[in-house]
Amino acid sequence: MKRIFLFVLDSCGVGELPDAAAFGDVGSNTLRSCATSSKLSIPNLIAAGIGHIDGVDYLPKAEKPTGAVARLAEQSMGKDTTIGHWEIAGIVSPEPMPTYPKGFPEEVLKPFEEATGRGCLCNLPYSGTDAIRDFGQEQIDTGKWIVYTSADSVFQVAANEDYIPLQELYDACHKAREILQGKHGVGRVIARPFVGNSETGFTRTSNRHDYSLLPPVPTMMDAIKAAGLDSIAVGKIHDIFAGQGDTEYIYNKSNADGMDHAMDYAAKDFHGLCFVNLVDFDMVYGHRRDIDGYAGALTEFDTWLGGFMKKLGEDDLVMVTADHGCDPAYTKTTDHTREYVPLVIMGKKVKPVNLGTRATFADIAATVTDLLGVEYATPGESFAKEII
To answer: What is the domain class of 3-91+215-387 according to CATH?
Structure first.
């Protein structure tokens, strides 16, 4: 293949993994919840065969599927963005990254406050929108950072752009990333800018940035780049991999913006991988437990996908997958959910086949590099010969 477009519909899981109980996520199923909404209409994915994926008994089955499909299990110990994407890219993380259900200890907060010259508010697991609602005015009054976490391995710093310059927030997150290493090496430090005041309310802006740990070993992106091919990162892919392995990158302001970027790359003559993350599914709808919103976003993607496929040539291939779950109907928490993820593969040379349930997301990395003729060692197994 010449070009592979890999889309991560951030958090679109397809049902609880066997160990979901250990994560408190029994009964979760993101796509099934979306299927209960009248806003869901995904004829292109259904035609490709998404309804034939193991366990997906809540969507129609295509009489003659046009694509290959699979259900992927996660071997890594977690349910967050970083290790989900790392596993897609070929790295299995057997040890969980640190989490802070009681907030961050003084040995983390004190050096952060000293390095940035500001104190901290909150320091608890918190919904991001609730954090700015509850502490936004106090930040205006005191100038302190709003620091919070979640069930995931994250150190999140919220700051009001109207009172704390955006670059100062980014600089503070860089400093936090330097501090948060070793036993406190969280998966991501996240800059969470917002605007507003107590009278108008507080709203997040699109200027979020993630600061990830460097992947511990090379990913498929490194292998593709080392082979002299293009490794293009769209959306927060560049941040998730700490800038490692891409030959060029562009950020997204929204799902629609990311889809526009992918369409632009489809019009370009490149050779390699275009790795796209669409985060609104997770950030805007999953965490906010908005079933109709999530379903509507899937409908928007599917409608766009129909036009996108028409722009592709004989040697192009599309993969659509996810990195974890975030069931919008799961009310026990507002966090990610431990789920299988779907894989739908489309292209003019793709054979319609059901690959069943695969042992690891890393099968994607093995297959992508195999299809591009790039050598890469990963725990995943390639299914290239089964789909082409």
So the answer is: alpha beta
